[in-house]
């Protein structure tokens, strides 16, 4: 049907009524959509009516066409359904025919199988009869003593001859010897011919192996599989494999290369390659490796413990590494247990008493390292106190000066050596490594603890602890002049050494005992060592007395009474006194030394103690003099310098004490009318009035009635 006038089709675009009306009005003359034209409603209405009629006609036509198509579709659907029903009936008939055919095929197959069984039942006895006839023929040749058959005379048919002789040999063995037939068959049952053929086959296998003929070796091995000498064939193969295989110095590498080569070859020759390869490995371990290990260890077992332990560790490690490589091969079901037993068989006699040798060597070696060091210093070790921690704490509480009696002169020697420590730690590290490798897993924690005990004895007790005791004994008395404070050097070195000791504890001992009850025992032992050393370091607080004593000597030698009461008040050219300069220089050196010698909270603790004592010394020193106005100003300058020195301590309490002391010194120069105001200031308000009064009394003008009146 052609579209009506003014009705537009635009492909797949949807129909829009408003747009359609607009177009229609635009096309209609007088519709008012064109510019310049007069609007004619009648004409537009007429045009709309005509278009509506056209659309109605079109709708009727389309409706008729739709009804026609629906009728046609229904008709075709009925025809298609009928055709499907006919096809289903045909398919059902075909399926029935297929079932009948399948049943017929099954029936025929059953008949064929039954016929085959019958034929086999007839043929099998016939074949057996033929084979029996052949065996009887060969049997007659043996009875006659003349082997005429080609199978016996042709060397290329040795496989068939071996099969025949094997069968005749088995038959002859089943017959009783006292019977006539048994007596006649005795030549077959005796080892003679059987053994000769067996030897001939083994010789053929050996020749083929030397020529490298794998296929021939496989054939002969398959024949020998049913003979008693099959194991001898395997032994010959293993023996010949090792010829020329161990020519280098590294027997372990040679063994690995040999096993790698045989592993590729043995599967092509034998029907049970895993058994043959396992037997080869067993032979290598029990013959080659065991002999090599014995030669290497027995040479040094009694004469050189160090070399013996090194060789034992090296050989055991290389053997276990070889075992790890062999784990890649197929050796049967439980190859891990198999290889472990081979290793144990080689080393069991050496591992049983390993730890005793280790401890004995470690003890003698450590003692030698220490003695060699003390000999190099031309020093004879003194006996040190053996009291426990409680005894040390009691000595600390009572501040008894030192366990070694009167002060001794160490000539600046700390008796601690980095080389000695490194040697001891290196020996112990190697001992831990050997212990980890050579100890039975059940004995590992116990053995590791014994090695750790040796380290504690020789490093901590015999070296560090002895140095601390000697350092304590070398601390001079507080009234000594020009005393050298070497104890701080001892503390510094002991602190460094103990960090190395702690690192070895964590790196090498902990992995060996982390999952055993020995862990708590080792941690407690380490804790006791630390506590014992800390107590002795606390006892070294007497070093601070020496420092204070040195400061006293400096002040007594350098400070003059005229410093704070100069004869000419108007001619004072110095900013602070010479005594102050020297004391501050000395204090700064000691603070730096303490920081370098200690770490952690120990630094703050010692510096606080020194700072408090330093303050007390300056406080008491200042109260020994009388101060003029200019002398008071100089004292304030000195205290200001002391306060700068106190800042190096980085301890709040010490700085606060010197701030207060500086405020007290202001009382030496303040005008009498301002004394009460200064005393009530922030820094002095909380001080005892007697302390304030004691400082005011140091003024040269204190006796004046005016000053006494203002301060009262």
From TrEMBL:
Keywords: Coiled coil, Exocytosis, Transport
UniProt feature coiled coil, ranges: 52-90
Gene Ontology terms: biological process: exocytosis; Golgi to plasma membrane transport
All residue ranges annotated as the Exocyst complex component Sec10 N-terminal domain in the record: 41-149
Pfam family, one: Sec10_HB
The Exocyst complex component Sec10-like alpha-helical bundle domain, residue ranges: 160-711
One GO CC term, this protein: exocyst
Stored PANTHER family: EXOCYST COMPLEX COMPONENT 5 (PTHR12100:SF0), SEC10 (PTHR12100)
Annotated protein name in UniProt: Exocyst complex component 5
Organism: Donacobius atricapilla
